[in-house]
Every structure is written in structure tokens, then in C-alpha cells.
């Protein structure tokens, strides 16, 4: 597959394609037979909109996904992988412990809710925040604060049952041929060599394989707009107002410093 090929569907395209494919019983049956016992039953009864995070937080990025999934008439489902290992060298994982908030005076700040050194190389599902609460529980509780109702699927056993990403990504993407849409942004930026290599060597070949087998691409929707500025990037990491204020109050109640953040 040409790496410059556009693999993304617009929201309107995804909405129309998902409706058409979901109503194609023959296509759905073929996909389910191909997946066999690897088919996730959460996709059986209604179209699903998926975001895949090791641990998902109720931030502005999630809020965008939530409303986009609703728009294409897909029920939001968060796919998680708690058996992944924490490392502060990974920006997304570190972001689970270094939260970005905006103070009432407009100042951008961060608050560290965990000990990065003590948590290094721990399974994410075992990592605790400084108050003793599990990191997973802390972030999931933010959804209660936000008021969003969403389903979670901790899918570590499914991943382990198949093996490496090179093996499981084909079966993951098959779920988005007729049963749902994946909200994701895959980078081919050479500055992000790990991500670019993953996309070139695993994601694109599996999309190409599915296209050859079924004549259509899986439905993938870009979960962030292209060409984000640093200001916009900060926004997606931040939180809706009620969650933002909750985190600030949490920091003050537990004597966690709020530090200036400069872009």
C-alpha cells in the first residue's frame, strides 16, 4: 500500500459506510467467520465506535471521540490494555500521571499524581497514584465526574491470546470492516520513527490485506485534526471544565503542587 494513501474516512463517509455495511448481513457473517473465536462479542448487537488507549482518561480528546462516535451512530467503546508496561519515556503513558489543567486565571499548569520513578516498568494495571488509588481507577472515576456514559473493554487477554501486534492488528482491524469504526491517528512522520515504523510495517500492510480479501478498507476516522499546533495539542490533553476543576481541587486537597506549563 502506498504510504501516502489516505486511509481515513470523513465523519460523513464513516456514517454512511457503517450504516451500509452493518446492514449487509453477508459481509458481517463473512467477517465473523474469519475472526472465529477472536471476534469481540461487544460488536455483535450494534455498531461500535472505538478508541484504543492503554488507559483512557476523560479529557478533551475523549470528548471529541465521544461526540464523533455518536454522530456516525456508533455506540462508544473504550478498548484498553492494562497489561502494558509503564515507562515515563513514552509521552502518552507519562501523560496519565502528569495531568494538564488550566487555572481560573488562565495559566496552564501540570500536576503529577504519581511517582514516575517508583512506577517505572510496572504493569499499568498495578500502578498506583500518590494517594494509593489505582491509576486505572483514578482515570475511570473522571468519567463519572464528566457525566459521560461509556463502555470499557479491558482487552489484555485478547491481545495475549493472539500474540504480537504484527499478529493481532489484522484481527483488530477486521472488526472495523462492517461492525464499527476505529478512531485513531497513525503517524508516518519520520521524526516519530517508532510510530512511523509501526504504521509502515504493521498497520498499512494489514489494511492492504483486508482490502484484497474483502474489497474494502476498514473504517478508520482520524481522531484529531491534521497539523496540530502546540496550543491545540495542549488543549486535547486538557479536560472539560468540570473535570478540570475536579483535578485542581484534588491536587489542592492532597498537597500536590500545580506547576507552570510553558508551550
Structural class: alpha/beta
Straight-line distance between termini: 36 Å
Element-by-element helix/strand order: HHEHEHEEHHEHHEHEHHE
Unreliable runs, pLDDT <50, ≥5 residues?
none
Supply the number of helical segments.
11
Let me know the largest β-sheet: 5 strands, parallel
Calculate Rg over CA atoms. 19 Å
> How many domain units?
1
Q: Into which percentage range does the β-strand content fall?
A: 5-15%
What's the arrangement of strands in the largest beta sheet?
Answer: 5-2-1-6-7
The helical percent reads 40-55%
Task: Report on this structure.
This protein is α/β, with parallel strands linked by helices and 263 residues long. It has one domain (11-260). It contains eleven helices and eight strands. It has helices at residues 11-22, 25-35, 60-71, 91-95, 116-119, 135-146, 156-162, 165-178, 193-214, 230-237, 241-253, and strands at 48-52, 75-80, 98-102, 108-112, 151-154, 180-183, 220-221, 259-260. The strands form two sheets. A five-stranded parallel β-sheet has the order 5-2-1-6-7. It has a three-stranded antiparallel β-sheet with strand order 3-4-8, with helices on one face. α3 links the parallel β1 and β2 (75-80). It is globular, with a radius of gyration of 19 Å. The relative contact order is 0.20.
